[in-house]
Amino acid sequence: MVRSLKACWRLLHAVGHALGGWWTIRFTFPRLSQEERNLRVQQWSRRLLEIMGVTLKVQGTPPANGPVLLICNHLSWLDITAIHAACHVRFVSKAGVKHWPLIGTMSTGAGSLYIERERRRDALRVVHHMTEALQGGDRIGVFPEGTTGDGRGLLPFHANLLQAAISSGAPVLPAALRFADAATGETSQAPRYIDDDNLLTSLWNTLRAPPLLAIVRFGEPQSSLGRERRAWAQSLHEDVQQLRRETH
């Protein structure tokens, strides 16, 4: 009962915080510079984690500037918030997110690029926009698994989006993310969102969970010069796997 009451309290605060974020994007962002917008997104994300009982733990060095293509394992709907709390990047998200009530406006305001995964040719369009963004000095984030995993291992990496780094000459920065019980350090399945998991159920499980850690571990940037994307994807898969093992 106590956990459920605490979850309800967190939920009310989270909804209020989300509405505040929506208001900021609609009415304040037009007056802000891009750097100021990025800072607001980072601050908003950190506060949301706090409201949900999640403490951010950053290991390694987040990218201070672009251009850089950040790649990371994908576990949950909470991943983007956790990474944004560590450093703002423009994520490549599935096109459907753009039309979600409230969340779509906030995702677009945070600079997301959208891809229609059902259309294989859409990857070419997205790579073009990613390349332009990287050439302009942006920090772009992708989940090369293409979907969420259960956290016990990594799904194969899709190599297509790495072409943006190769074409623009931008480095790639591997990173790993893990959610853990703050008391024991053991991996937590509360934010899990895979296969037939329901988003609302996953949200409720996270809100009811004991205090959590969101551990984001950054590796070292890798030059894109002379790379072949498929071989590089396999190498990066091993690098992210190693970073996952090193989170603590």
UniProtKB/TrEMBL annotation:
It comes from the Bacteria. InterPro entries: Plipid/glycerol_acylTrfase (IPR002123). Transmembrane segments: none annotated. GO terms for biological process: phosphatidic acid biosynthetic process. Keywords: Acyltransferase, Lipid biosynthesis, Lipid metabolism, Transferase. PANTHER family: 1-ACYL-SN-GLYCEROL-3-PHOSPHATE ACYLTRANSFERASE, 1-ACYL-SN-GLYCEROL-3-PHOSPHATE ACYLTRANSFERASE-RELATED. This is 1-acyl-sn-glycerol-3-phosphate acyltransferase. It holds the Pfam family Acyltransferase. The lineage of its organism: Bacteria, Pseudomonadati, Pseudomonadota, Betaproteobacteria, Burkholderiales. Pathway: Lipid metabolism. GO terms for molecular function: 1-acylglycerol-3-phosphate O-acyltransferase activity. Residues 68-180 form the Phospholipid/glycerol acyltransferase domain. It comes from Variovorax paradoxus. SMART domains: PlsC (SM00563).
